[in-house]
Design brief:
alpha+beta
Length: 468
Amino acid sequence: MAKVVLLCLIWTGLLYGCSAVTPYAEQPLHVDVPEQWQAEGTVDAAISREPTAWLHDFDSVALHNFVAVVLANNIDIKTAAARMELSRQALEISSGQRWPQLTVDLKQEKTHSEKNGDSFHEQTLSVLASVTWELDLWGRLADLVRADGADYRAAAHDFQSVRLSFVAQTVRAWLRSVAAGRSLSLVQQTCASLQVSEEHQQRYYERGLIQAEDVRQLRDERLRCEEQLSELARRQREELRQLQLLAGVYPAANLLTDQELPLIDTQIPAGLPATLLERRPDILAAKERIVALDARTLAAQKKLLPTLSLTASGGLASSDLHNLLRHGGSTWDLVSNLTLPLFQGGALRGQIAVNSSQARLAWLDYKKTVLNAFAEVESALDKEQDLCRREQGKQRDLAHAVNHEQTLWQHYLSGDESLTRVLAARRQILTDRRDLLELKTERLLNRVQLHLALGGSFSVSQELISRI
């Protein structure tokens, strides 16, 4: 018997050794990470794990309150939370399989027989308890628990990623709705100004001071301006509906938002790109999936090894319940079972290959996620600098357009300039104001994208820095 066991162990050792696979979670990414971001801006090295911490950069109490509503009511966030709970339950199931399994069987049997015209009735009551335990000699069950634990952590990171994503979507929709309302207000102010100018010019015409052509030009300019109002109002309603959909309420487009875009005074400090691996929840989730698949690959390898299980059972039997515990007959047995897989048509090795291939795919996805994360941060930083320069240039253009219009208006009042050029100058002012509003909005949207790419805020975590 000892020789048989020894031969089995040698055989399975050879099988196990030939199927060993290096864990992908331990393989390097081979990505040369620079010490500083290559774009002109730089970012800080740490993160606050709370997905709304970076909202303090946007000075809007109404926005903060609405984000809280979205986090509480959004359907996709609730779905992600349900998936995380499912992963936690799967972890509990696999953890429980490492412990002995106890079952109790209560049985009642009644028999009826006849002999020589006589009837006989017999009743037997029995209670049987059994304990089954698979000894985790090689750690296979522990590997499965580790895999489910990694899946649970991945689901938790996915949940944080979904929360961060919907916070960003909410802020973007909020900013666009405010910008749409602000653009509508600019056009309304321009239309009102043209209306006042038209009324003044009408009185001047009635007094014979100007020609009818000047009044007609002002009226046409006002009508062209008013034609834009309905389209701008529709755009604002669309953005409001999008906000309400994010909050999980009926999209009635009756939400009240800010009148002005929020201000951002926070500068982008310096930091280390490598910390991105420690902060983005999608990267952390991708890494945990590799850990889970590595653990399942290792568990599949260990299925080539013998398994040892113990089964103990015992019970009592009696003809009536009163005597079951007092005078019932007792039985018990103890069985040990050693199982060695010798031939299964290549199924075990096939499962090892499948798990290893899945781990490799997860590792490639992880590397792609990391590279995309670096690219997103670099692009956002680069765009931040470009938008700042363009915004400053547009502010200068607007100031020049306002001065030019005032000069032309004075010349028109003195009879040295035509009304056509004055109206063209006013159109240019409106265009520059709307362009400036668009640039400010784009810069705010890009700041949201930067926070999303970084996985959180600019707050410093010394614990995180010390691990780099």
